[in-house]
């Protein structure tokens, strides 16, 4: 028996959203998806339609769905795609091609930081350092810093990232488990800059379940990367995400309810925790808890082994 779409009541439904008790056809699903992005941006006052907004795109389904849906929801907003070419063999070139393709398709400006040509090393070079077993952690530090650099080049103070509902709830559980309160509050939908001149980080997909990003990419014919990073052997949050999927089977609104209550907890936590004391890195001038920031330390380390 075919079910008819609950919205248009004409096309056959293909997508079942148990948490919303909705069965939708592909067209109505895309509309539903984009409307949620628009409402999330408006609810948390992430930006105004006339702002210039940087969008961090890796080439993965989440960030590609983010750029496409933002452009659809806010056609007059000036979005700039920001991409880092990490120089990872058999991977980065593929990702960059997909990002270039989408930017062209949407007529969006693209700013790329090329690690190899601009800094003289690639993420692969970290295999020769003490980070060989935690490459993803070094890569994360490098990316966080360079997206700030890219935002500055693009002359925007707003940086949108593709963190989805599952990412946020899974990371939240991890930080809760480890009692890492200062990291926990950083998961909020709009993160103010640590210092002036830095970006406001926004998460327009914070209410979007991960599996819907893939569906949105497929239905909207969005190009996205089809190969996995050779360094990502085990995803740190994979176990938490599997657990969330399992719990969502019995209670479809589980992830949404966790997020809702978490957002209520943030202001209370923020008042209770001490703000980290920050100074500026003596090499790059970025905010840092030590004399030399984590980014500059890693750059120095990888340059040493390259010599
Ligand atoms: Zn429909
Ligand atoms: Zn630094």
Total count of domains:
1
Order of helices and strands: EEHEHEHEHHEHHEEHHHEEH
CATH hierarchy, class: Alpha Beta
- Low-confidence regions: none
Structural class: alpha/beta
- Name of the CATH superfamily: HUPs
Q: What name is given to the CATH topology?
A: Rossmann fold
Instruction: Tell me which ligands are bound.
Output: zinc ion
Radius of gyration: 20 Å
Major beta sheet, specifics? Answer: 6 strands, mixed
Sheet-strand content, in percent, reads 5-15%
CATH second-level architecture: 3-Layer(aba) Sandwich
Distance between the termini: 67 Å
Mean pLDDT, all residues: 93
Offer a concise description of the structure.
By secondary structure, this protein is α/β, with parallel strands linked by helices. It contains eleven helices and ten strands.
Describe the structure in your own words.
With 307 residues, the chain is α/β, with parallel strands linked by helices. It has a single domain, classed as 3-Layer(aba) Sandwich (Rossmann fold), CATH 3.40.50. Helix content is 47%, strand content 12%. The chain is built from 11 helices and 10 strands. A 6-stranded mixed sheet has the order 5-4-3-6-8-7, with helices on both faces. Helix 5 packs across helix 11, helix 6 packs across helix 9 and helix 6 packs across helix 10. The longest helix has 19 residues. It is globular, with a radius of gyration of 20 Å. The model has no long low-confidence stretch (mean pLDDT 93). The structure holds zinc ion (2 copies). One zinc ion (ZN) binds next to helix 1.
